[in-house]
Amino acid sequence: MLGSGFRDPLAVLVSGGHTAIAVHIQKKWRIYGETQDITLGNLIDMFARSSGLPSPGGPTLEQEARKGTKLLKLPYTVKGNDVAYSGLLTAASRMLKKGESLQDVCYSIQEVGFAMLAEAVERSLVQTRKKELLLAGGVAANSRLKEMLQQVAREHDASFHAAELSKSGDCGLQIAWSGQLAFRSGITVKPSESHVVPRWRIDEAEVPWIPIK
Question: Fewer CB within 10 Å: C terminus or N terminus of the chain?
């Protein structure tokens, strides 16, 4: 895995488009857990926009969360290895309108939302017996999320790596590196036959460059 040195991790992908826990099995990523409604990135961005925080929402919400001190009671929804965030978003927006401070609401969104994911990740780590935990995606830039998942890895004697800030958000490097790996594995597509599939799931694409377990 680029930048990590990992060979067989439990991968946690968190962004505006994904919230998924994945393992590599027989040339494909297999989803071991995921969101049942909105993604973690959606939760953060949608709340940031509705509360008037400047864009991009992730860094500004994290800044406000550092000033919060009161943990508010928000919905905590974990079902096996899956999570759900729409209820948390609705409740957080309602609390802000009722007069709770923006800093405390941001702090609570992070603590509750990240704890939900950390629980699902910990359960997946135990079930898969992986010894490498990889965090990637735009939300991987969040310091508090990295801290929580690093603690999960530490408690289960697993190595932890979070994608660097320059590689964690949307960027051409991700596409270029995947393309290079695919090309080295003999996968090519004619320009005339290439097209975008907006809702293409990561577990539908073959990734033969990872050693088969």
Answer: C
